[in-house]
Amino acid sequence: MSYEIDLSQARQLTRTPVYEIPVIRTESACGPDGGTLGATNRFLTRDGSPWIPVAGEMHYSRLAADRWDTELAKMAAAGIDVVSTYVFWNHHEEREGEWNFSGNRNVRRFVELCARHGLYVIVRLGPFCHGEVRNGGLPDWLYGKPYEVRSLDSGFLDEVRDLYAHIAEQLRGLYFKDGGPIIAAQVDNEYMASSAPWEMTAGTSREWVPSGHDGADYLERLRDIAVEEGIDPPMFTCTGWQSPVPDDMMPLWGGYAYRPWLFYDGVGTERPVEHPATDEYRYRRLHGQRTSDDFDPPYDPDSRPYACCEMGGGMFNSYDYRFTLPYHSVDAMANIKLGSGCDFLGYYMFHGGTNPKGVDGFLNEGQTPKRSYDFQAPLGEFGQMRESFQRLRTLHEFVKAFGPELAGMPVSLQGGQDHIDPRDRTTLRYAVRSDGERGFVFINNFQDHASVPSRHGEQLDVTTAAGECIRFTGIGLASGENCILPFNMGLDGVRLVSANLQPVTVLRRRGRPFRTFVFLKPDGMDEPTFRFEGLPTVTVGKTDFERFMVRDKVEIVCVTRALARRMTTVLDGGLAFVDDDNALLYRDHDGWKLESPHAENGIATYPQGLLDGPRPVEPVEVDVRLRRLHADRYEIVLPDGMARLLHDKRQIADVMLNIGYQGDIGWLFCGDDLIADNFCNGETWQVGLRGHAEVIDAAGGRLTLVVTPLRHGGRVNVASPMAARLEQADARVSDVTDVYATPVYHMSVGERGI
Length: 754
Hints:
By secondary structure, the chain is of the alpha+beta class. Strands 5-6-7-8-9-10-11-12 form an eight-stranded parallel beta barrel. The chain has a seven-stranded antiparallel sheet with strand order 17-18-19-22-23-26-27. The relative contact order is 0.10.
């Protein structure tokens, strides 16, 4: 089919004034090295230049402290600029007056490590956070107090002041103005938009933490208290959706296509039988106009950048809704947001975690597992790398290389793109961001909760403001794929009229008189072609890696999606390719590291010779024995010396215990310690054992696996004079199909730097 888009209005939109907005606290936005942060109505700035940050959520208190360093290095390797993290109140003051900032609750050390990896930080202060934490993060002891939480009641605000004072003490000297990494702080979360159950009350009562009713005054008062107590970031942020937005705060938005809360047992609501397809995968114009019920901000949309903190990097499995996240959904949403005008990408979650246990019980929300908060995130609960991580790296490289050019470019839509029915399987979904003459075509072929066919033989005509018609022919995309195609791109004196390949990054190597532009061949593209001004069309083949020169001025490197998943930019101008889809190359304080499920790995580089091969490690066999103790109870016996192996971090990053089972819930105990749990969704359940080396050693390497059966036709008989309850079911499913262990190797990689 043929489509077209006219950019005559884009030129007018680019003339809309770009002006500074008062969300930046100027006294805190200049670092000791002279670096500055700023904000306009279109985009953020860094040192005066347009900046599109990439943020990823990672909760320090949900991750063992000895893993922070490595996992932050992996976040940086994914192209994350900013780490966003909740400060859960009840993780630090579970009992009134008893504060805990030690171990995995040591927020100061976490922020310092972020700085070591060149990562900025957004601290989400609460008092209410949600994050599927017990009471949304509010301590139990607040329930019986003579005031309402999340209100302007002076008694509650006094407690918030104490919370903020303790946080401020931990974060002193770590703000941007001090040379530290903290660039923003969020007060409360989803105020007047959502809440969480009071988990200390009976589940049948459905009693909820108040969502609030004091409007922007409440958020402004929290901000004032934070500043008074010494919390001093360049800007304060607040939730954009359905919440009040103070004039001097940056609203942050999000988008989730997988919504377990649709299936929660609510009062007076009818739960759907199946999850509906959502409108999260159609393009809109998210700057300058209200586009739908879920983007109807209480401010002029042209007065703020469209920025995100909660694009679905994954989603938790709730008890009533279990699913396997399609990993293509994550970068597809990032493509949609960018193509719709977003100039601040933020994922929730980017790194999964494990809920800590409190002194008085579990600290999770009742609809979720008691320990696991894996979230099917790009980096899993134990640092597992998912396909979404690999796909996002390519997109983030694009944002870093071309973000200053893309930032502020208006969105052009035609053909009712912003009203496409999510179930539409035939219409090409596309948008253009352009200054009227040059820009990028965004195309998406993914839809949640619906299958879309691969596309072939599509044509798109882009008419610039000057009247030039740029024709994209031979557009094809595999099912679930997305891409960004450039037009009128300047390549060091060569005009790239159009390309059916996605620009990834730009490299410059010392001693070379030209730069290298790296492009990605989208899966399913019919005609991967380049059209340069004054030159014949160049069509690249199907091989993983191809290169050619253009007029001896520019080098073009093309990689397939499969190869891009294994690609890392190294040494400020080279590329490295690991030989295993599940291996990850990243840079740590001590140099390059490789994490892999195999002891033997290879690395190729372009140009050749940038890195040495990984230093070899001895392969490890981890034999696991499974013994059935009871219908639903098993013993897992780990080999002798397991604790010693887990402590030796020189070659083993972790040992993953893989459990295939059928049932309702899986519970893994070591002695009386519940170390992991899982709501069965048909996927292999993985548990990293490194963090449990001490208890494994104390238990003699023996674990207990309990599988709660999945009951069909289940019912509870309470017809008894003794108030007894008897569970009955027509059928029950409980079985363990496989248990095995796989080491995750950790090895150093030498750097030549030629």
